[in-house]
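Q: Convert this sequence to structure tokens.
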Amino acid sequence: MKINVLFILSLFFLGACKGTPTSDNSDILAKVDERQLKRSEVMAMIPRGISSSDSLFMIESIVKKWIKDALVYDVALRNLSDEKAEINKLVDDYRHSLVRYRYQERLLKERLSGNIHESDKLNYYEENQKKFILDKNLIKGLFLKIPADAPGLHDVKSWYKQQSEDALEKIEKYSVQNAVIYDYFYDRWVDFDEIVENIPMRIPDGKAFLKANKQIEVADSSFYYLLNISEYIPSGNVAPYDYANAQIIEILINQQKVDFLKKFENELYNDAIRRGKAVVLLEP
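A:
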């Protein structure tokens, strides 16, 4: 096997940087038999803005890797000659699947809007309640993490338990200046465990805890942690519709895709049979 490696890297880099015109031959950086690695291919892999020494190192690494890959491929091809037919079939199958997948993705992007009617979402939710059983405890509320030396802590401890517009406005203004974490979620359901991860306390049974507690007020040497819970839904119950909404949309969009592709394939099949392009020669 003849290997011709053109390692005039400094000239290569200099010529590339100056934009020197190159002939077909001068653009070839390395060869393994009849295969060629071109200067333009290598330059496309070099990030902009790096130093000359780093560029030369990357060029050398790329060239060496390309040659090694080519040599290993040749050795493998010779030693797997008895499996050539199987390998070719696998390659053909992969290419077939890839082309089919790429076209289907383009088709779905062009033909499907992805819009789901609210009535369809509600109907699916009502008819498939068992799919939305919670494996976590959900809460609505407000969480604050405040430095232990922050001013006005006494007032904050009073405000965070209230849901009045006035109290919430005071908390928001206070949090801008003082809170490390200010998380308002009276308007959405969140995972109780995700909130508790921010609090230095152990709660072995979240469901039992939520049944008996509406507030958490904990302090360590650095911070105060304040959580007010306005509503909760324990695990084992059906998730509320607004919490399940994103999952429902994903399910229905996937179903749309499946239905669309099935219809598309059936139309192609029926049209090909009708026109004689496809013929069933042997009944199953």
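The chain has ten helices and seven strands.
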